[in-house]
Amino acid sequence: MALVVAAVLALWGVDFQIYPVDPWHELGRLGWGLLTPAWYDLSSLMWALLHTVAFALLAVAVAAPLGLLLAMLFHWRAVRLCCAAVRSVHEVFWGLIFMQLYGISPLTGLLAILVPFTGVFAKVFAEIFQQQDFDTVHTVGLTAGRLKRYCYTLIPQSWPALLSYTRYRFECALRSSAILGFIGLPTLGFHLETAFKQGDYSEAGALLWAFLMLIATIRFWLRRWLLVPYLLLALWVLPATVGFDGGGSLWRFVSEDIWPKALLEQDWNGLLNWWVALWHGQIWPGLWQTLLLTQIALVLTGVVVLLAYPLASRSLAGPVVRWPGRFLLLVLRSTPEMVLAFVFLLLLGPSGLPVVLALALHNGGLIAFLVANASDEEFRSRLRRPDDPASLKRYAYLETPRRFPALLAFLFYRWEVILRESAIMGILGVATLGFYIDSAFEEIRYDRAFLLIVVTALLNMLVDAVSRRLRGASVRME
């Protein structure tokens, strides 16, 4: 209830004005483009798809083993803090950082996904290990090292869950790879942004359908025995590498460029003035808008879940409704938030409304998909009683109360993700923290960009800590 009240209060501080005179005309053109997809250069479409998959596959192939190693060391506070820090910075921000060092190159794309995903893998793998039976650890002997205990007991127990989560993160990596095109990398996002800006909605429709088909068919083409050929092919199809000068620019970047001049010159009064001006002019306004949009999007996500999951649940919907409902959830969870926000910005103008709608629809579609699957599993295994309610009563008095604790847990888990996505929406022109970060990079003011990214990371870590406590409370409700 407190979250709902906070979201209602946040409505007063966000600009939700619709700027275009006739958004329905633009929406009609967009709908017609989706119904009449057309791509005149199939080779460029195939290369965009290959680049998108290559960045995602190679990044996950490196991040998953690194995350597994860090998960074994997750009892160390330093490891937990480092993992929290790297995963709190969005892939787009990492891309902007590495782009200053390596330009628009494969290394930029790979590191932008690999670095935060390593932190995510470490956290989730450690949580999976904690859920296992630790009594089996003693079977390998008291003198066995930590690595041997993990290799012979916890990893074999956890293997199905580890594989399942890795597959899910690969789907996330595909979305991350696609949106890196919005900052210049040659993935699907680059061509999508170009098509939308030119008003070529048929071309944009072809790209969206191609990406949805890529996500929907993962289970068919991502086979274990094909991983080695896929990885070799991914290395081969990467775009041309921009040369690196041997480390001079990297050292200059980390030792000089990201620190304010006043700090390097030990001008403490100048440093204070720099900080105060940045706080009042960029940090606080961006922080406030990011928090407001996040809170509204979080509550609206819950509303979307409550409305959408019955459409895909076997216990609440028949085949005529369920299959279109599942397709709708596939579209919502597969389309990156930034792509949805970009479309809504074209239709509704530059305000907070496109951001909130994009975040709520994507995250609501994802959580509704998970809730519907959980409902289906219980429906198949549970004995039905003759007096079980049906229709709307079943939804209100049986299914939703059963699903609600898990729904809250999923919602709190996505809270941090929604915050990170709210921040990067500034790249599209909305005045969140990402707007000021992108502007700082464009003005080659790396000291400002670095501080703003640190503020964003600290805010994410704070929200993550709060959401963990709330998730624990929601789990105890079950």
CATH fold group of the largest domain: MetI-like fold
At CATH level 2, the architecture of the largest domain is Orthogonal Bundle
Please indicate the count of domains.
2
CATH class of the largest domain: Mainly Alpha
Mean pLDDT: 85
Q: What is the H level of CATH, i.e. the homologous superfamily of the largest domain?
A: MetI-like
Structural class: mainly alpha
Give the termini distance in whole angstroms. Answer: 18 Å
Tally of separate helices:
20
Can you put this structure into words, describing what you see?
This protein folds into two domains: 1-36 and 258-478, Orthogonal Bundle (MetI-like fold), CATH 1.10.3720; 38-252, Orthogonal Bundle (MetI-like fold). 77% of the residues lie in helices and 0% in strands. The protein has helices at 2-10, 23-35, 42-72, 77-87, 91-102, 106-130, 146-179, 188-197, 201-216, 218-221, 227-237, 248-257, 261-264, 268-312, 319-334, 337-348, 352-381, 391-424, 433-442, 446-477. The mean pLDDT is 85.
